[in-house]
Design goal:
mainly alpha, 317 residues, Arp2/3 complex 21 kDa subunit ARPC3
């Protein structure tokens, strides 16, 4: 009995100790679990902080990407502004050049009219010098404009064709393709190119027909036809058959006006309204024939030669 009680007494504290130990281990495990939970919370909080930092970085990146876009937009606006300013300057320069060209070309008819009303002696020589000066000024302005190869090459070629065409039709008085070719050059290339084609065509062809005091007047008159025709063509007024017909007839009269005016002012004596009208009337049928021939040549060469000129310009860049 005593041993049994002793065993029970020894067993009870042992069981209590084991129970207490289990409780302690449970408590420790609970505490450890609590610690793990707190650590998880800290990790979650840290992750939230990282995510917040990442969001902030993304926002910063978005801001950084917006900034170059804003700079690019600003640069684009500046470039557009410069382009507009450049276009305005180019337009102003073209308008100024056109006004100067008109003044240079108007100098000759103004002197002709002045000599006619003043009745000056030596009017033929004076007007001839003025026509020569106009030719030289226009040639200088063409050179000063520094035309590109795609403009110079067709201009020289068309001038040679105009001279050759005039010589080819020598048996037929006033049936000449010079006015038509000069007009096409002015419309397809530039009015100054049209002037140069008409002037050079007259100068070169007179190596065959003969040079004389009439040469500068022919150069000026055909050059003026090329310039005015070029201005009309570049505005689309010669795109129709009717437009080309009207200008062809008018170009023949314009050419004859200057040749007849130089003859009347320089050589008709006494110069009266009756004698002037008689001289102009004598030349009118030939001027009309010249105009009719120009209409025919314009209709024949306008589209095929114009297309070839555009292709040539595109190839030459």
């Amino acid at each position: 009995m005593g041993r049994a009680e002793e065993r029970e007494g020894l067993a009870a504290p042992a069981h209590d100790a084991e129970a207490n130990g289990c409780r302690g281990m449970g408590a420790g495990a609970g505490a450890a679990g609590n610690d793990v939970g707190e650590g998880a919370e800290r990790v979650a909080a840290g992750n939230e902080g990282v995510l917040t930092a990442s969001d902030a970085g993304a926002s910063a990146s978005d801001g950084a990407s917006v900034a170059p876009d804003a700079v690019a937009s600003e640069r684009g606006g500046v470039a557009a502004g410069r382009g507009t300013a450049g276009d305005e300057r180019t337009g102003e320069r073209c308008a100024r050049d056109f006004v100067v060209d008109v003044l240079v070309l108007a100098l000759t008819p103004l002197v002709l009219v002045g000599c006619a009303f003043a009745g000056m002696e030596g009017s033929a020589a004076l007007t001839l010098l003025v026509a020569l000066m106009s030719l030289l000024l226009m040639a200088r302005r063409f050179e000063k404009s520094k035309p590109a190869l795609r403009q110079v090459l067709p201009t020289v070629t068309l001038a040679a064709l105009a001279a050759a065409g005039r010589i080819l039709f020598a048996p037929f008085p006033d049936v000449k393709p010079v006015s038509a070719i000069a007009t096409l050059a002015g419309a397809a290339l530039s009015p100054r190119s049209g002037f140069m084609v008409g002037a050079l065509g007259a100068l070169v062809s007179n190596l065959f027909f003969g040079q004389g005091p009439w040469t500068p007047w022919q150069m000026y008159a055909w050059g003026l036809v090329g310039y005015v025709g070029g201005c009309l063509g570049r505005r689309g007024w010669l795109d129709t058959v009717g437009g080309r017909t009207a200008w062809g007839l008018a170009s023949g009269l314009l050419y004859g006006l200057f040749l007849n005016a130089w003859h009347v002012i320089g050589f008709v004596k006494p110069l009266t309204w009756a004698s002037a009208l008689a001289a102009f009337g004598a030349g009118l049928p030939w001027d009309l024939l010249h105009g009719a021939a120009t209409v025919l040549f314009l209709q024949l060469i306008w589209k095929p030669w114009g297309n070839k000129l555009r292709r040539l310009q595109s190839k030459l860049g």
